[in-house]
Amino acid sequence: MARSGIGAALLAKRLxxxxxxxxxxxxxxxxxxxEELIARGIRCETGGHxxxxxxxxxxxxxxxxxxxxxxxxRRWLDxxxxxxxxxxxxxxxxxxRWIAVTGxxxxxxxxxxxxxxxxxxxxxxxxxxxxxxAWSTRLPAPETRVFVVEVSSYQLEYSPTIKPDVGVLxxxxxxxxxxxGDMASYAEVKSRLFRNQTSSQxxxxxxxxxxxxxxxxxxxxxxxxxxxxxxxxxxxxxxxxVWAHDGNIEIIxxxxxxxxxxxxxxxxxxxxxGAAVSFGCSVAxxxxxxxxxxxxxxxxxxxxxxxxxxYFNDSKSTNLIATMTALDSFxxxxxxxxxxxxxxxxxxxxxxxxxxPLKSIIAFGESRQKLSQELPDEFPVKTTDDLAxxxxxxxxxxxxxxxxxxxxxxxxxxxxxxxxxxGTEFKNLVRES
Length: 433
Known about the structure:
9-stranded mixed beta sheet
């Protein structure tokens, strides 16, 4: 009964379906969500999934975090019951145009950049998916709208027919391997975004990411590349964002005209430009959209400055690559707040950032001991139970000119509902000081 489950249930009900929502949480834990569904005439099962084992269904829709037992999956498939994600349901209902964005890092920022460009082009745009609102909650909708949808690997597992007009694969790094097993399997799941596309549709791909390139041969749609190397049509060249086409190099924007910091954001902007051109937008609209870009909440988001100390919220960094990328946006004097529920990856590469830009690390939550064990003994790491106490420690050692950065590099589920709740608590703690 999280966002996508509620969205799928309400859409199925609007379409005339008889809906049961089943959740292992108790009635007390589900609270308002449960009341909303019951008020809409949707049957609800709480505290377990007994009815899933005993009742007959025509369709099963899985929330992204749900991994059903193999026996259930076999039983459903043997009966010919399709298993869909909420993304699959929404894409079958939606008959208009849409753009999908996936990858390990940068999805939310890129979705926002694409939406800003499309609005500058005069289109009626809505963002959906992991960017914050389940796509199903927006449907049905007039086909004059355009949806830009953030897509996760979990959603792609059960999305057999999705076919976006433009699909974007930003990058692939070690992530969610506890679910997918290894990088080859993870890359294969991500590549399903393009599986049903035709040659009249577009795949926007990172030209410099090894794992993205490993799946390119299997993509049958028209390919557009972005990156920092000279092989990409949309690339960085002498501190400019450019588009190479028809034998010409067209400057989209000078790097200093784009307000989001960091090389990673410049690459996100190039991916957005590639998607927008594929969708039919002019360079003028791209330029206008990128110039007006604003930082996404919880992604290297400036919070405040107190006594010369700057605070940034990067709670959306839930893996090490995202944290390393955030650190590369700062020159020096960063006190890093790091921790949460670790994914199966080593934290040792953080040692590469000692001095430039890392001044010290305050580790909190479940992963604090793992971090201490995997970094060299001389590395300045302090550990504590939670984010609030980590911030107290950081403040005690910060001086004017320092930056306190929450970029946890881990999932939030040891202490929080999601990364948004974690980031909001950090911002509240900073502003209450």
